[in-house]
Here is the input.
Amino acid sequence: MRFMNPKIRFTIAIIIIIGANFIYSCKKDDVTFTNDELLTQDTWVVKSKTINPVILVGGMAVSNILELEADSVRNYSYKYNTNGSFFQYDQNDNVILQASWQLSSNQTELSLSQPLVFTYPIMGDIYVSALKIESITPGYINTLVSCNYEGIDYIIQTIFESK
Here is the structure.
């Protein structure tokens, strides 16, 4: 370095400083949120709802049960507030259910004090008061609900996205 041109030394020093600053600023932006923080950041809408095993409706196998819901139900939205209150809204943003919510200690089980009720052909009413959070990121929630109908265990996977 002693014999290196001063302009080259200066340029190398600037590149090192800029590179170090870039690396530091990237690490500073890596913010992680808890599931309850992610849950309360948005109002949520259902983007997909599938059931496994499939159900037979009119002789046809159906796995996408969102297709079986009325348009008005498909447009429901859901809001979890930091104070533990929960609201389900219809397509006109009218409150149709008010309850409280909480997460389990490991933040993977979501419990509601009042169940959500969904009606499906063949199966009738499904009451949902507990959801297993498979994954949650900003703007996205993947949940599972177990239910039993006539001795058959079903898993309903619901994907929520930010409204």
Remarks:
- The helical segments are 6-28, 35-40, 71-74.
- The longest strand covers residues 43-57.
- The beta strands are 43-57, 60-64, 77-80, 85-89, 95-103, 109-120, 124-137, 140-149, 152-162.
- The two ends are 58 Å apart (CA to CA).
